[in-house]
Amino acid sequence: MNRRIVLAQRPQPAASLDSFRLETAAIPDLSAGEVLLRTIWLSLDPYMRGRMSDAPSYAAPVPLGGVMTGQTVSRVEASQNADYRVGDLVLAMSGWQEFAVSDGRDLTRLPAGMQHPSWALGVLGMTGFTAYMGLLDIGRPKAGETVVVAAATGAVGSIVGQIAKLQGCRAVGIAGGAEKCRWAVDELGFDACIDHHSPQLAQLLAAACPGGIDVYFENVGGKIFRAVVPLLNPHARIPVCGLIAHYDAQAGSAEADWSPVLMRTILVKRIAMRGFIIFDDYGSRFPEFQTAMHAWLDQGRIKYREDIVHGLDNAPHAFLGLLSGRNFGKLVVDIEGTHGDRV
After folding, report:
1. Which of 77, 149, 246, 260 is deepest in the core (most CB within 10 A)?
2. pTM above threshold 0.85
3. Would you place residue 220 in the very low, low, confident or very high pLDDT band (cuts 50, 70, 90)?
């Protein structure tokens, strides 16, 4: 039998545990060309919140009663496809479930003997690729410039800051809590990190960026973006990766009243602000990213942290924690519950 978590109801407006339902269903028989996959690792990412809504977007929403979307590392359990053997590890879009059937066209085989297969969901996968292309292609940092990144200890932000340092920049992070800020500075090498819970957020950020901000990597929006905008230098660049502070906001909120200030800043300071969808916009450059990231990891120049949750049942609670900033590093679910916690 297959255990799976489906979308029970759309957020109203915030996602909650009532948004999800755990179901059990029979595993279908395989047809010619298909493989049966057992999920080993499930990635939890902020974009999933957008898929829970039926508002127009760049991707189709999860249907009510449908399995929650998500990328996985899976093991081939049975195969009627000549390209895949039992025991192969693959990247798949199996979603929040223990088993899935695939015709093989959406699978990517992982190297045999890979030391940390779950890293294919993070630093060596979509989140690392997002940090790499967003910063280097849209942010275009130059040595000596100041790069600020929101959610600086998250899956994307932690890598953005480290790549900024490799480019010779001043890296300033914004994170939630003193422990996360200490880790960003002491372990990741950020020059400074500001706790966004502080009532002096704007003043502390200004003090950490005495020369202004040249690149702002946006993961959050809201009050953090409002603190950043007055500090932007002429010709600053803003890669827009995510807006987690707005995912549960209702239309017509007070944010709209702030738009004239933002628009004037964009005009007067000639700001370049661009959103991106990583594989749609940069899929052809994934090998370039992998070559660079493997080298940096092998040289110890990039550090990586995972926040591991054990068991499919705990995925909804962990995902809601991700939306509120409770995760510390890349959030992954150990579906089998057999892997220990690691940093």
Report:
1. 149
2. yes
3. confident
| C-alpha pair distances (Å), 110 with each of 74, 183, 202, 243 | 10, 30, 44, 31
- Asked, as a colleague might, if the bond just before 13 is cis with ω within 30 of 0, I would say yes
The total number of residues shown for the chain amounts to: 343
Partners of 291 in beta bridges: none
Average of pLDDT values for 313-320?
Answer: 97
- Give the number of other CB atoms < 10 A from CB of residue 19: 21
Instruction: Using alpha carbons, select from 15, 340, 301, 59 the residue that is nearest to residue 332.
Output: 340
Mean pLDDT computed over every residue of the chain:
93
Q: What is the pLDDT of residue 249?
A: 55
Beta carbons of 225 and 213 less than 8 angstroms apart: no
325: pLDDT confidence band, cut at 50, 70 and 90?
A: confident
Measure the CA–CA gap between 53 and 42, rounded to whole angstroms: 21
Q: What is the DSSP string of 214-236?
A: EEEEBS--HHHHHHHGGGEEEEE
Helical H segments across the chain, by residue range: 47-52, 126-133, 157-166, 178-186, 201-208, 222-228, 259-268, 278-282, 286-298, 315-323
Cα–Cα dist 96/43, whole Å:
9
Higher pLDDT, 340 or 274: 274
